[in-house]
Amino acid sequence: MRVLVVEDERVLADAIATGLRREALAVDVAYDGAGALDRAGVNEYDVIVLDRDLPRVHGDEVCKRLVARRYPARIIMLTAAGELDDKVEGLSIGADDYLAKPFAFVELIARVRALGRRAAAPLPPVLERAGITLDPARREVQRDGRTVDLTRKEFAVLEVLLSADGAVVSSEQLLEKAWDEHIDPFTNVVRVTMMTLRKKLGDPPIIETVPGVGYRL
């Protein structure tokens, strides 16, 4: 899942991004509304964590513009204004969820994951295929009942492959979903991560390389 965090308090923005990355999510950060619109114009996000009181372009206006152009991401608003009227107003302009500051980070994680499931085709809470069981909420992976210890990126790549339900996933799609905007598109990081993932999953191999196209589980 790819997430955009939009928050003008840089310490808070970076803390949120770090916490989400620890949950095996790909995260980009914008520190104002204009930056958020620029990034959304280039990248496709599953969820946008959007502060309401932003410089340059207000968070409400960012939300309205994204909704008007039918941008596919789900939007969760973060704001210090937690009164009922504020929540109603935020939801009325197109936000999908609303979380008042201060908030518990575990709640933010749960809401981001819930919105991520709504952003794409509906997926079961636990993904299963070819003897692999992946539980995103618990960050647990098993193969034929054996626990597999994966890094965050290996977990994210496996989650994308399982979510594809047998379809081929290109390296570009993996970079889009499992890494952030700072990754070099010409790097061999996908190939290297796939090698280590295959090794950890063990035999018989279950991740197929489709030459010139991508990977399939």
UniProtKB/TrEMBL annotation:
Keyword list (alphabetical) reads: DNA-binding, Phosphoprotein
Q: Which PROSITE patterns match?
A: OMPR_PHOB, RESPONSE_REGULATORY
Q: Which InterPro entries match?
A: CheY-like_superfamily, OmpR/PhoB-type_DNA-bd, Sig_transdc_resp-reg_receiver, WalR-like, WH-like_DNA-bd_sf
Is-annotated flag, keyword Phosphoprotein?
yes
Q: Could you tell me which residues form the DNA-binding region?
A: 124-217
Q: Where is the Response regulatory domain?
A: 2-116
Instruction: Outline the extent of the OmpR/PhoB-type domain.
Output: 124-217
Q: What name has this protein been given in UniProt?
A: Response regulator transcription factor
Taxonomic placement: Bacteria, Bacillati, Actinomycetota, Actinomycetes, Streptosporangiales
